[in-house]
Fold this protein.
Amino acid sequence: MAKDYPRSYRVADQIQRELSDLIKHELKDPRVPNMVTIAGVEVSKDLSSAKVYVSAITIESEGAEKQADMIDALNQGGGYLRKLLGGRMRLRIVPSLKFFYDEVQQTGSALSSLIDDAVATNTTNADEMEQSDKDSVWKRDQ
């Protein structure tokens, strides 16, 4: 089991759950909205540092400047969050926290809209496709 799910993954999952609660209830910075989503946590193998990927729906529509402000606020409050995290988790070494904005949702929605546009501008007629399929079957049978 240890090789299938290493300790760093288990610690990352626990950090993700705890940080979600800590940011929502303990961090009182006006630059950080209450509805912050922690998309993922990557912990180094020696458990000394953690990369925390966050996003917020309310910030996405407001632009890159608000995103940068939120990440700055989280990085400035990282020491406080680390202290609170140490109180909740029984670890000998609590990882240092570095926050990054997760752009996966934005990238996914952009790709989805590109696919929708490509499908909408498809000029191939479905009836022509069916007829060409029938012709190819007829030619194959002969």
